[in-house]
Each structure stands twice: as C-alpha cells, then as structure tokens.
Automatic annotation (TrEMBL):
InterPro entries in the cross-refs: ALR/ERV, ERV/ALR_sulphydryl_oxid_sf, ERV/ALR_sulphydryl_oxidase
GO cellular component, one term: mitochondrial intermembrane space
Protein name: Sulfhydryl oxidase
UniProt enzyme class: oxidoreductase
Cofactor: FAD
Amino acid sequence: MNTFDSMSDKQDDQLAARLGKKKRLAWDASSTQKKDEDLDKPLPKGVVLDKDGKPCRLCTSVASWRALTKQASSASSSSNTSSSSSPTLSPPSLSDNNASSIPGANDDDCPPDVEALGRSTWTFLHSLTAAYPPRATSEQQLEMHSFLKLFSRLYPCWVCADDFRAWMNQSGGRNEPRLSGRSEFGTWMCEAHNAVNRKLGKKEFDCRFWEERWRTGWKDGRCD
C-alpha cells in the first residue's frame, strides 16, 4: 500500500466518524426534544401535585390517577419504540397468571385515593366525637385541641389539610373547635364535614342527627 492509499483510507475513516457523530447528535437532539414534549404535556384533570412537584396519590382520585399512569405508560412506550427496535421486557402485571400468585389481589389492596382516604378519615373523626365525654375536663379539651391542630398539619392530603386548617382559623373565630362536651363537639365536626361537602358540591347532612348517625344508631332500629 502506498502513502496515497494510506492517506485516503484515513480520510475516509475520519469522514465516516464525523458523519456518525453528526447522526448521534441529531438522534440525541431528537430524543431530548421528545422527552421535553412529554414533560410539557398537561396532567390529566384532577391530578394534584405534592409539595415536591410530583403527583400526590393521596390527593388525587383513583380515576385521575389511572389517567396519569396511562399517560405515562403511553409516553414510555412511545419513547422505547423510537429509541430502540430491540425487544424489551415488561414489568410483571396482575393480569392473567400473575394475579394468582398474589393472595387476595384486588382493587381494595391498592393505596387509597383522596376519596377513600376522606371517607375513612371522616368515619374516624365522627367516631372520635361519639366517644368524647358528655362534659370534658380542661385537660381533655386541651388534648383534643392539640390533636386537631396536629391533624390539620399531618393529614396525608396536604391540600385537604390546608383547607381544614384555614377553615378552623377563619377570622372571627366562628370555626374554632368547640370542645366543652360531646354534643357541642359532635355538632362542630358535622359542620366541618358539611363545609367540605359544600366545596365538593355534595349534599349536606342535617347536623341535628349526627348522634344517631355516628353514636346511637337510627331510632327506626335499622342499625340494631
């Protein structure tokens, strides 16, 4: 091989390397643009972001959460298809034969959404008022006041917690916890629940009957 042939081969290799680099850069730019487009897609209606900017499962309804996971799955599939033609392994699914390997697998085993969490919480709170003494001591009132204050900060759905805290702290003190005894506390909790019902467009409960609903059972005997 003469010198000319050697130089020609080197030039061809350099040219091929430059072309390959340009193709890779173009591919990387395309992939980045695709990822940016996926990130810019609006979230499904009803999805609430946590304080860290990520979707909050406990703040979101199950319907909205499933729409979000469907959107994410679609974006991931699109990205995998465009980035590689090689087959990929899918994660295990509860469908088909996999479901039988998990005892009792069903929707009730899933993390609660904001509605399930709310129903369970209201059951607990109303039961708390039902167990409250008819006449509370100063110590019992102080303990319950401390609990409600902590509850309004630690409740898993942070937007719900903020709303509850804002309602209790409304100017004029009209919504401050009334804790002198069971009857007063039960009525106050019912009013708090109705404030949420109004916000959600739900039917309000007649607070005159809170004790039948949550403590003694209905007078018609349906709960006996």
